Amino acid sequence: MLPTYQEIKEKLIAPFPKGTVEVERNKAHIPVQAYINRLEEAAGEHWSWKTNGQPLIYEKECQIQVKGTLKILNAEREGVGFSNFKVYEDNKEKIQNLKYAILAAESDALRNACNKYQMGWSDLAQYKDWGKNPGVGVTVTQPQTSQPVAEFTCLKCGKPLQASDLQELEKYQIRNKYCSEDIPAHMRKKR
Ligand SMILES: [Zn+2]
Question: N or C of the chain: less Cβ packing under 10 Å?
Answer without folding.
Answer: N
